[in-house]
Amino acid sequence: MSTIPKAIYEQTVRSFFAPVLAFLDDPRVSEVMINGPRRIYVERAGKLELTGATFPSDEALLAGLRNLSQYIGKIVDEDHPILEGRLPDGSRVEAVLPPVSPDGAMVSIRRFARDTLTIERLMALGSLTPAAVEALRAFVASRINIIISGGTGSGKTSLLNALTGVVSEGERVIVIEDAREIQPQQEHVLQFEARAPDPRGLGGASIRELFRASLRMRPDRIIVGEIRGGEALDIVQAMLSGHGGCMGTLHASHPFDAMTRLETMAMMNAVELPLSAMRTQIGSAVNLVIQAARLADGTRKITHISEVAGFDVERQRYRVSDLFDRDFSGVDGDGSVKSELVPTGNLPRFMPQLIEHGYDVPEAMKEAKRRCAEAQRADHEERGGSGDD
Q1: What would the pLDDT profile of 90-130 be if each residue is shown by its tens digit?
Q2: CATH code 3.30.450.90 region(s) in the chain
Q3: What CATH number labels 6-110?
Q4: Which of 111, 260, 263, 372 is 20 to 30 A (C-alpha) from 387?
Q5: What is the CATH topology of the domain spanning 119-374?
């Protein structure tokens, strides 16, 4: 690890990255994309923009990346052309350098949110409705195991951050991440960060190793920033062994896909486990999948809140039913997508767990179920009447 004092590093890195500082300081910018020294894009309010900013030369951009690598103790050269690191403010940097990037260094900087996003703020932004917020509060407080699914930049980590605000202050929370992004809102929190080994193969700590260590540290709740590999099976087995309320994110485009992706990652584990047993465990461990998406207008919304009710052996698929689903109704004149997250009429099978913790589903979910039942009765009566004619 570099011995450069943090204050000096912060000063020098701001100097090296001066061409993009205005974007890194702009709260509306979520990502800065440097496609070589002369083409710099930003994502602002969910939309990509080509800026007029430039670096003086290829070497100036490479100098900034070398400065970053020196501080975080990583090597970046022709033999090590990929760099992962963080800027002083916590923003995540991923860079691919020549020769594997022939047109120059390509850099993506995911900004670190300085303000903690709350579940109320998500409701104000239209990502969630009051009924969905009430339901999620009950689910988290009742220690339901939750997977947040979505594509890159869909708001998975922001939602996970918001859900930590519902966790009781009386719980001991352990957070495990590749790069520190989650900002838990509790006092009793342990945050662990995975680390790649140095060139000699020393000093590394994987997500899986940290997860196993956390199980021996008396956690009330374990949160994994992103599930990427074989640690998926460890997480599933922890969920089944009494560690309720686990939360984590993964990349998938639909709640069904999230379950199959979790299964695929669990198979990367070295533990020999029959596929049928693995599927049964996954279906029993995960209670809820929350799907996040970035819509065509650039806004980030929750599109599904879905219950997982086991694995259907006969149909060979996970039983996933939507509790809330986003209803799309077109596009406004300004290009904004019109939609609303509405209850489907399905009530969760884990209702007894909610009641055990003193919670219930919101009245809007019960009303939706009554409407569905009435519609089914009316349809049944109409079909019966037609049969008599």
Answers
A1: 788 999 999 999 989 999 998 876 667 789 989 998 899 99
A2: 6-110
A3: 3.30.450.90
A4: 372
A5: Rossmann fold (3.40.50)
